[in-house]
Amino acid sequence: MAIEIMGLGWHVRFVPASLMDVMSDFYVKTLGVPRSGKMRHADGYAEQKDYLWGGENIIMNHNYGGEDVAVSPREADPEAARQVPLFRVGALDSIVEGLRAKGLPVRDPRRCFGGREAFVVDPMGMLLGLRQCDADSPLAQDREATRRRLRGEAFNPGCVSLPSDWQEIGWIRIRAADLPALIGFYRDVMGFPLVAKAPGHALFDIGDNTLLELAPGGISRPAPKAQMASLAAMILRVVSVPRVVEFLRPRGVHFVHEMFSPARGNLTYIADPEGNVIGFTDRLHPGAYVDKMPVYPEDIEAQRRWVEASAGAARR
After folding, report:
1. Nearest in space to 113 (alpha carbons), one of 213, 30, 25, 39
2. SS3 for 12?
3. The CATH number of the domain where 164 resides is what?
4. Average pLDDT, stretch 213-231?
5. DSSP assignment of 170-238
6. Rounded to two decimals, what is the model's pTM?
C-alpha cells in the first residue's frame, strides 16, 4: 500500500489577525491573485480565513489567528525560507518589471533547478515564488503544464482569472537542515515518488502536476504541538485519510493532529523530522455533505481528474 495522492489542495499560512486587511489587500488588490472565498467569522480555532486562488485545484489559505505568530528574517531569504509556494509563470522578466513598477520588493530573477525564479516579499515578511521553466525541461510535469497552457485547459472555478502569465502553484519548496535524511523520509517513509535529483535538490511528485522540492539551507525544529503553531502547511488531497493513517502509523510518523472529520471529509496533520507540517484530507461526495452546505467546484474537478488519471494508468 502507498498513499494515494490526488494533488495539492491547499497551501496554508498562519497569520496574525492584525495583518488580515493588509495581507488581503496585498494579495488581491496589489498582486491580483483572485479571492475564491472569505470567512470573517471565527471558527472553533478562533481563526478567520481568506481563500485565494492558486490555480488549477489549489487554494492559498490565510488563517488569521492570535498575535503570537513570529516571522524570522530568514523567511524573506530565498536561501533559508522554510516553506515557499512557487507559481508557474511565463515571461518572468516582464512580471518582475510590472511588480517593481508597483513598488513591490522583488528579488532579482536567478537560475534555479530547471528554470529561473524570482520572489516577492509579502507584508508578513514571507516569500511568494514565481518560476519560469526552461523550454526543454525534462520533467513530465513541466511538459504537461505547457500543454495545458497552450490548449487553454487550466481549470478556473468561476472566480476572476490569475494575473496574466500566472498559471498555478507548481512547487512547494522546503529548505532542509539535513537534506539526505529528509529526502530519505519522503521517499522511504512517506513513499512519495522521487522524480528528479540533482546536487542540492530533490523533486517529489505530489499529484496533478505539482512538485515538492527539497533544498538545503533549512533549520530543524521540533514538531509543533498544533498545526496553527507553524508558519505554513501544505494540505494534500488523498483518496482516503483513514488509509493514510493506517499506512503511516506503523512507520513512526509524528501526528500533529489526529484524524478528525470536518463537514466535507476527513483531515489529519503530520510533521516531518524537521518540524514541517503536512496535512492530508479526503473530500466527501457532495451528496454526503451536511444539509445546505455549498459544493466547491475544485473538489469536483479534483475528483474528476483523479478518476481520469487512474483510468489512464489502468489502461497502460
Report:
1. 213
2. strand
3. 3.10.180.10
4. 90
5. EEEEEEESSHHHHHHIIIIIS-PPEEEEETTEEEEE-STT-EEEEEE-----PPPSSGGGSSEEEEEEE
6. 0.93
